[in-house]
Amino acid sequence: MDHYVVLVVDDDREIRDGIEVYLKNEGMTVLKAQNGIEAIEILNEREIHLILLDIMMPEMDGIEATFKIREEKNIPIIILSAKSEDTDKVLGLQVGADDYITKPFNPLELIARVKSQLRRYVELGNYEGMNKTVQIDGLALNQEAKEVTVDGEPVKLTPIEYRILELLMLNADRVFSISEIYEKVWKEPYYNSENTVAVHIRKIREKIEIEPKNPRYLKVVWGIGYKIEK
Q1: Which of residues 123, 150, 173 is at a domain's end?
Q2: What is the DSSP letter of 176?
Q3: Which residues contact 130 (CB under 8 A, 6 or more apart)?
Q4: Domain that holds residue 173
Q5: Which of 93, 123, 198, 212 has the fewest CB atoms within 10 Å, counting from its CB?
Q6: Are residues 147 and 106 part of one domain?
Q7: Is 113 in the same domain as 217?
């Protein structure tokens, strides 16, 4: 992979240092912060390609930091959660994180997740024949500019949200199961990630639909999956 800069944000120095060792072995540059405030200061000064972000931190926790980062930037965010409960993870995804990993984590899994997100982030700019706008009624997706508009108004999507919407729009009227969406967008085997996909679908709906509970574009096909309706 190319040379990437990863920001590791955790109030536990041992965890920060341990992750740094793993990622440096993969040829990545690692910057470190111990809370959300420090992380945002670094983001304003340096080009960062991915953030590993702990949830439970003093001063500014990972949820608030994710929310603030997403106001400005679309870089991949992987939440580090010390808890096994779904609530923190789902909350992290709802405010804009792309993925999560639960502590204690396997270093190989951590590296795989980081590489997967970096690859996807970079590939957003590497489609062939990109001069293409996909239009379905008032919903438009420009593959070259990576922009989505609804009735001419720009919509800010995270990289994962963009990839899900692109998949569904390029295959309008085709129903994709949750496992199909996961494997095509995350590019790894599906493993009980229903919550992850559902949260991202809900966020996309909130951004592209006038009435998210009565969607015009992104429809659920009960018991099967989701589709974008022409």
Answers
A1: 123
A2: B
A3: 143, 144
A4: 133-228
A5: 123
A6: no
A7: no
Q: Which residue has the tokens 């991949």?
A: 76
Residue bearing tokens 């270093």 = 107
What local confidence, expressed as pLDDT, does residue 119 receive? 83
Order of strands across the sheet that contains 147-150: 133-136, 139-142, 147-150, 153-155
Q: Which residue from 144, 54, 61 is spatially nearest to 101, judged by alpha carbons?
A: 54
Q: Is the pLDDT of residue 2 over 60?
A: no
Distance separating alpha carbons of residues 101 and 54, to the nearest angstrom: 10
Q: What is the dihedral of CA 192, 197, 202, 204, to 10 degrees?
A: 180
Q: What is the pLDDT of residues 82-109, one digit of tens each?
A: 766 567 778 888 888 999 998 888 999 9
Which pLDDT tens digit goes with each residue over 152-203?
899 999 889 999 999 999 889 999 999 999 988 988 888 776 788 999 999 9
Half-sphere exposure of 1 (CA within 13 A, CB side): 23
Specify which residues 220 forms β-bridges with: 226
Number of domains in the chain: 2
> Which among 90, 64, 92, 91 is positioned nearest to 79, based on CA atoms?
92
In a domain, 128, yes or no: no
